[in-house]
Amino acid sequence: MTRAVDRTEELAVFLRTRRERLDPAAFGLPARRQARRTPGLRREEVAELAGVSIDYIVRLEQARGLRPSAEVVEALAGALRLSPGERAYLYGLAQQQPRSADKPAAVAAEPLAQLIADLSPLPAMLLNHRYDILAWNREMTRLLVDFETLPPSQRNAMWLCLRHPELQKFYTDRETVVRQGIAHLRAAWATHPDDAELSDLIAEFLAQDEEFARWWAERDVAINGRGLKVLRHPEAGELTVRFEVLAPLENPDQRVLIYRAADDDSRSVLRQLFTS
């Protein structure tokens, strides 16, 4: 039977093995300086790269009960040139949460943009944590709105739901849709504290939309990745779709949103809409 993970011990071993795997030549260091007796970088070299004391590295690698801060974890991840997966693992061992980049990418990752196109005839689009719409396929434009006709500042799912005249009555249960969106934005706001664009977007909604301001003040937090929506399409009439939100491992700030017909009548409506 495998025993529970001892985080302190695992952190020590993980840091030591990653240090020993590094090639000194990659850092501009001589392969042999005073006859290196251990592989990889020395502790003092890692300490210098990370901006911490040698004693701190020694205590970490000897599992002497230290719990590095998020800032130190990030510095160690950079010094040890950890991959994204290794970085996430190090944060987990230290029981810290990684801070997001100041400005997460607002451009669709190319493989994900291609995936959105390949998902046709299912309506699909790619969003980031701000609900910015980064990519979409033809079916999604037929179902919602032609995003190409909108300025980039309006290609945001929350903005469209709140402000676009054609979509304000698009959802039969608009309150639930908006509330779920607000709960998602609040969660994103907490995990991306340095995202100025997100803060500005929320400030705009608070200043210009009374409903948003009222529901934001309730402080609901949730990430809803699956469910049903009843739509009132101006051409096709009423239909029900199932939505699914997928989170790509390689691009954690981007989300694939897919709609599927929830019943035979809705499937027929979508087929007719997409072939017209």
TrEMBL record:
<dbReference type="InterPro" id="IPR041413">
    <property type="entry name" value="MLTR_LBD"/>
</dbReference>
<feature type="domain" description="HTH cro/C1-type">
    <location>
        <begin position="33"/>
        <end position="87"/>
    </location>
</feature>
<dbReference type="Pfam" id="PF17765">
    <property type="entry name" value="MLTR_LBD"/>
</dbReference>
<dbReference type="InterPro" id="IPR010982">
    <property type="entry name" value="Lambda_DNA-bd_dom_sf"/>
</dbReference>
<dbReference type="Pfam" id="PF13560">
    <property type="entry name" value="HTH_31"/>
</dbReference>
<protein>
    <submittedName>
        <fullName>Helix-turn-helix transcriptional regulator</fullName>
    </submittedName>
</protein>
<dbReference type="InterPro" id="IPR001387">
    <property type="entry name" value="Cro/C1-type_HTH"/>
</dbReference>
